[in-house]
Amino acid sequence: MAGTTHIHGTPAPAAHHDTLPEVPAGARGNLELLEAALAAARAENRAALVGYLPAGFPTVDGGIAACTALLESGCDVVEVGLPHSDPVLDGPVIQTADDIALRGGVRIADVLRTVRETHAATGKPVLCMTYWNPVDRYGPERFAAELAAAGGAGCILPDLPVEESDAWRRSAAHHGLATVFVVAPSSQDARLATITAAGSGFVYAASLMGVTGTRDSVGREAADLVARTRATTDLPVCVGLGVSNARQATEVADFADGVIVGSAFVKELLAHPDDLDAGLAGVRRLAGELAAGVRRD
Amino acid sequence: MSEDFFLPDPEGRVPSTAGYFGAFGGKFIPEALVAAVDEVAAEYAKAKDDPGFAAELNDLLVNYTGRPSALTEVPRFAEHAGGARVFLKREDLNHTGSHKINNVLGQALLTRRMGKTRVIAETGAGQHGVATATACALFGLDCTIYMGEIDTRRQALNVARMRMLGAEVVPVTSGSRTLKDAINEAFRDWVANVDSTHYLFGTVAGPHPFPALVRDFHRVIGVEARRQILQRAGRLPDAVAACVGGGSNAIGLFHAFIGDADVRLVGLEAAGHGVDSGEHAATLTAGEPGILHGSRSYVLQDDEGQITEPYSISAGLDYPGIGPEHSYLKDTGRAEYRPVTDDQAMRALRLLSQTEGIIPAIESAHALAGALDLGRELGPDGVVLVNLSGRGDKDMDTAARYFGYYDTDADTDTDAAPDQHPRPQQKTEAE
């Protein structure tokens, strides 16, 4: 935290908060909508289904159609990826999609349009997921303001550890955005408490030690991590990495508040490179299957 | 004298406990790696205070690497440098042919202390990969080297060298298929295998503690050179010069001179076809602060934080980032960084070869080109110390093509994929 102060030369969060201009009600982010969606799933005695797709993939408009399809077909929440040139936490499937999006010239304005139009079309919570450098470069305050104005509900920044997150969290909170932190099986209990105390919206529990991608099974360490995380927080705990089918979704729904699926949706679109409608049909079918899977009864 | 070889930086100097050199550094890593990186930091802190660690490392540095490396004065070369005296610190004479072995042996010892049995590393063209494969053979560790696919195809001999040493070499097909992507892929491996595996990072970049740890293992370069030049020239040099890619050989040389206010610290970065051409790797000249590979430092990036492709004839300098301590030294004004083009470096490479009988790595040739300019600026009373970070054997194919030394058209027997840049066929990363 000393480091963050060092970098930006800014005073402590509370003091700084007072200096930020008030955000008009209509421009605040949709943190509360995210909380309500997760609470609604819990009230229905099921896990929430969280889908991920990168913006600009296969095109900006195609990506908006795909994100909208996710929410129309069973997802409760969508994470829109802001593609990065160096996605060190992503496996080959999402790398390929990011690459297609970046070669297509996707810009942050396109990502924000994807958030805006997906939310407007569905009324459901839409998060942004990306790496820290694009946000740092754009300006954390500017990015938070524009994401909130687009109707975004929050942001997931998996390479921004809690120790470096002060500036971002200050802006996110100011604009009504969730800051979703990732926890991993290697996270020690004391560290889990620090992370969950700083986060909002939900906690993203990585099911295993590894990068994104579909896998045959979800390891037992995921259930252990969720239990250890729950011991530190009342925030919902959603599990991601490796979940790709309804059977796995059911397995995870048994112990987690939400199931996060990304690469499996990307694969559906990659399977039909020249036929967006076929890809969208695949996305809808998979979302429907997963939505059935997350029901516990 | 052997206690002088491993010399961690004295307490109280940068970085801060959070790993910051001024505004640069830090630890921007996924949560899954936090425990592993903290373990490296904790183990290094313990090792620094363990006389047994220093004794074992010093023994290796003397009896395996061949330290201390020589300091060679090069008067015939210096005739082209305005008559200033020029001295070369001969890291090219180390075992494996570059300074890289200094860091690799230190981290190999740490790997063993942590009880890990497998090592991974990135390599742009082979020099850090070969040094790592060498240490793994010596210590009986499993070794996997990530290398951009473009480089593995073009550097079949270095790949063979690593495989001869028992390492697995994995061609990286993601992104631009070069050094930056090799590092990305090594991080992906580390996240998945962190229990058994140490990531033996090859330069003074990456998340804390790597910038400080790798620097400490290379400080021996400057400590030896400072002592040697005081004996030989009877005074400190006016300037010390080194090439910078990630910046490890440069920081190793600079560090012993930081307290000598009258000694200029000059880093030479790869300007490729010229900084204005857009085809360069001059991160400190043309980059902006950002985050790449775990720390905040200058980065070649676009206006939305996407990392841009670097270019240099030298693979070891062909990197869009730079170690955070160099960014700090630049911003505080303690060090200066200058661009050197491919053509300037290649001319200096040939000049040293033909005036002194020493064939430098193309990386180190960037420092030599900078020294020619420094010498001319200083005049006949000047003294310049240059880090000759690596030998040029592996660059001979590139050099032969560049200067037209082949009797027949050697292009016909290579993988002649169309290439917008005249990338070298054999490169070292002896930066």
From TrEMBL, chain A:
EC number: 4.2.1.20
Pathway the protein contributes to: Amino-acid biosynthesis; L-tryptophan biosynthesis; L-tryptophan from chorismate: step 5/5
Keywords linked to the UniProt accession: Amino-acid biosynthesis, Aromatic amino acid biosynthesis, Lyase, Tryptophan biosynthesis
Cellular component GO terms, alphabetical: cytosol
Disordered: region residues: 1-23
Residue positions of the active site: E79 (proton acceptor), D90 (proton acceptor)
Any one GO molecular function term: tryptophan synthase activity
EC category name: lyase
Pfam family, one: Trp_syntA
Reactions this protein catalyses: (1S,2R)-1-C-(indol-3-yl)glycerol 3-phosphate + L-serine = D-glyceraldehyde 3-phosphate + L-tryptophan + H2O
Protein task: The alpha subunit is responsible for the aldol cleavage of indoleglycerol phosphate to indole and glyceraldehyde 3-phosphate.
Subunit structure: Tetramer of two alpha and two beta chains.
Recorded family membership: Belongs to the TrpA family.
Name the record gives this protein: Tryptophan synthase alpha chain
UniProt organism field: Streptomyces chumphonensis
UniProtKB/TrEMBL annotation, chain B:
Pathway(s): Amino-acid biosynthesis; L-tryptophan biosynthesis; L-tryptophan from chorismate: step 5/5
Cofactor(s), names only, from the UniProt record: pyridoxal 5'-phosphate
Region annotated Disordered, chain positions: 409-431
Database matches in InterPro entries: Trp_synth_b_CS, Trp_synth_beta, Trp_synth_beta/beta-like, TrpB-like_PALP, TrpB-like_PALP_sf
GO cellular component labels: cytoplasm
Residue span, Tryptophan synthase beta chain-like PALP domain: 65-390
Catalytic activity: (1S,2R)-1-C-(indol-3-yl)glycerol 3-phosphate + L-serine = D-glyceraldehyde 3-phosphate + L-tryptophan + H2O
EC nos: 4.2.1.20
Family annotation (Gene3D superfamilies): 3.40.50.1100
N6-(pyridoxal phosphate)lysine sites (modified residues): K100
UniProt-recorded Gene Ontology molecular function terms: tryptophan synthase activity
Pfam family name, one: PALP
Keywords on record: Amino-acid biosynthesis, Aromatic amino acid biosynthesis, Lyase, Pyridoxal phosphate, Tryptophan biosynthesis
Biased segments, Basic and acidic residues type: 418-431
Record note on quaternary structure: Tetramer of two alpha and two beta chains.
Job of this protein: The beta subunit is responsible for the synthesis of L-tryptophan from indole and L-serine.
Family: Belongs to the TrpB family.
Name the UniProt record assigns to this protein: Tryptophan synthase beta chain
Taxonomic source organism: Streptomyces chumphonensis
Lineage of the organism: Bacteria, Bacillati, Actinomycetota, Actinomycetes, Kitasatosporales
